[in-house]
Design goal:
Elements: E1 10-13, H1 19-29, H2 38-47, E2 56-61, E3 64-77, E4 83-94, H3 103-118, E5 122-125, H4 132-137, E6 141-145, E7 148-152, H5 155-163, E8 179-180, H6 181-185, H7 188-195, E9 204-205, H8 209-215, E10 224-227, E11 237-245, E12 248-257, H9 261-275, E13 279-283, E14 292-293, E15 300-305, H10 320-323
Parallel strand pairs: 4-5, 12-13
Antiparallel strand pairs: 1-2, 2-3, 3-4, 3-9, 5-15, 6-15, 7-13, 7-14, 8-10, 10-11, 11-12
């Protein structure tokens, strides 16, 4: 609607009653019109998050919601163990009739301003090639490429991996290998035992029992937990899910909560052997035992300081669980 100008819009914090207008826009803009899980997925992501309910903003024209922008709350631990409050720039949508008015930029900068005043430390995300230039113009900086590591199950699986260069499915494939992670990690004792093996250096997610329980709780994602010993979770385990990518099935290694690299590599091999997945994949900035580098591959991490300085590029210790889905 070319006649509308940014000054004609009212920008305010989103309220629960705005969902009825925002959800259809989000579904349409993100290609989720036919996804039966999408609304529940947003509820899990934005309302059940133990780091806090996601702050969001809306743009209104003549009292009607025509734009929506939200940030996912997150917490990192710095190298010295301090908590760094963060938000991730995630879901955004604009009514098609209002594209070109600058709603995305206006909502994003409003959110950045208010989050800075509220004391949030940094904003981060992994934008795609289309949206990255817009973020860079709003003060984001390219922190680093998050390197990907893989482990093929065998030579034939290597071929499947190399020929399936398409986006992975969002929802997971079923498997009965390991334990249902949502059920297992609802047990605080199991979660605490595994967290003892969480990364202790670098800028890493603040893994708490509440975080692990939430992170694995959304049923359509079908997260599994494979332990070294089901009777003794203190010996370590890996969290994974199977997802289809073209003709291949990959085992996404979300977390390696293990005492040493040998244990991690053995568990990754077990996942491949017992599930029949073509290959395992994960990030090599965090624990990644057994995964070998896939050159020049991986999401690009961008950051923007709010009330704190952004970490140095080499300080990040992220796993696939920190960046996938969101």
């Amino acid at each position: 609607m070319s006649s509308v100008k940014p000054e004609d819009l009212v920008i305010r914090a989103a309220e629960p009653e705005d969902d009825a207008a925002a959800l259809p826009m989000l579904r349409a803009s993100l290609g989720k019109v036919e996804d039966p899980h999408y609304e529940a997925f947003l509820q899990w992501k934005h309302r059940a998050n133990p780091f806090g309910v996601s702050p969001a903003w809306v743009a209104l024209h003549d009292g009607v919601v025509v734009g929506y922008r939200t940030f996912l709350r997150w917490e990192f631990l710095t190298d010295n163990g301090r908590v760094l409050r963060a938000v991730r720039a995630v879901d955004t949508a604009t009514d098609p009739a209002y594209r070109g008015v600058g709603i995305f930029r206006t909502l994003t900068l409003q959110g950045v301003s208010e989050l800075t005043l509220a004391g949030d430390g940094i904003v981060f995300n992994t934008p795609n090639d289309q949206s990255r230039p817009g973020y860079l113009k709003m003060g984001w900086s390219l922190a680093r490429q998050l390197p990907v590591g893989v482990m093929p199950r065998g030579p034939r699986s290597m071929v499947s991996m190399l020929t399936s260069r398409v986006p992975a499915s969002l929802w997971s494939e079923a498997t009965d290998v390991g334990l249902d992670a949502a059920v297992a990690l609802a047990d605080r004792g199991i979660a605490e035992s595994l967290i003892r093996h969480a990364p202790a250096k670098g800028v890493r997610t603040n893994r708490t029992p509440e975080y692990l329980a939430w992170r694995t709780a959304f049923a359509p994602l079908r997260y599994r937990l494979l332990l070294v010993d089901d009777s003794d979770p203190a010996r370590g385990g890996v969290i994974f899910r199977l997802r289809r990518r073209g003709e291949a099935v990959e085992a996404a290694m979300v977390e390696q909560l293990v005492p040493d690299r040998r244990t991690g590599a053995l568990l990754v091999r077990r996942v491949l052997r017992e599930t029949g997945a073509d290959y395992a994949i994960g990030l090599r900035t965090g624990p990644s035992a057994g995964l070998v580098p896939l050159p020049r591959q991986g999401p690009l991490l961008t950051t923007r300081p709010l009330a704190a300085s952004a970490p140095s590029p080499g300080d990040w210790a992220l796993t696939l669980g920190d960046v996938e889905l969101f």
